[in-house]
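User: quick one, fold this
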Amino acid sequence: MQRDELDEGRSPGNLIPALPDDCSEEDADEERRPIFSSQILPGLLFLLTVFTVLWAGAYQTNTNPLVGPWNFLAGEPAVLWKGIPFAATLLGILVTHELGHYVLSRMHGVPTSLPLFVPGLPHFVGTFGAIIRMRAPLTDRRALFDIGVAGPIAGFVVAVVALVIGLRWSTVVPIQTSYGLHLGEPLLLQFLSWLVLGPLSPTADVVLHPIGFAAWFGLFITSLNLLPIGQLDGGHVAYALWGPRQRSVAVALVPILMLFGWLGWKGWFLWVGLAGMMGLAHPPVVNPDRELGGTRLLIGWMALAIFALTFSWEPFVLR
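Assistant:
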């Protein structure tokens, strides 16, 4: 997930001190920031997230529902290493996603922080994702589009490769013996499952390998980020493609998500609430009239296709 933040005094109408010829604005911005917030804090948060995701991956091997994550780890600390397949896959997807934003931000000369990963509880996946903070207004539609679309596409590529590997190591079981949390099946998962595992009978179910589950969650995060709302990645892309019409698309999407929440996964109500807090409309860019060009338009439609292939209206089902 990406978030834009503008520092005070950096609006287009304010005077900006001249920089030396051999010093870029990004470098000067980093020099002005305390080393703790610009380098140490991102590193500490990443290491803590590595630990919590490892813990979550290990806890997924727990077969006793009466044992909580803390007792599970305290009883046998070496079990933490069982979480490596899940953690390496999920973090690989998330890091690639955030690096896509970071690299394109630097290429467009936008002062950008290192990714700030958010550790989470080990009960499920162990992280709440990551954010990148941009400290200057985006100059035009091309920069907005490139920065917004780079993360989802980069993470999507890694997630697809991981999903194919995970499906190869997954197990097909009779559906009547499966229990607990069932995952939604977006179109991409259905297609790759058919491609890797072959046609399944109506009485069969797939128990995903930890690598496959991490890949599924990576695709789920990709679809959430591509929602064309506010300053989500999808909001960046939608505004770059359609301008102010992005708000109309976001407004039309809200009742649809609420309907999905009423019929299935209640988490959609939370997303609608967060969307209301962030704002449905994307803020304007400095130069909105610059043409995207044919290549970017094609990539934009590819991003919309990725959203359609990874979206599941009921991602989690308890049986």
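User: anything notable?
Assistant: The chain has one domain: 3-318.
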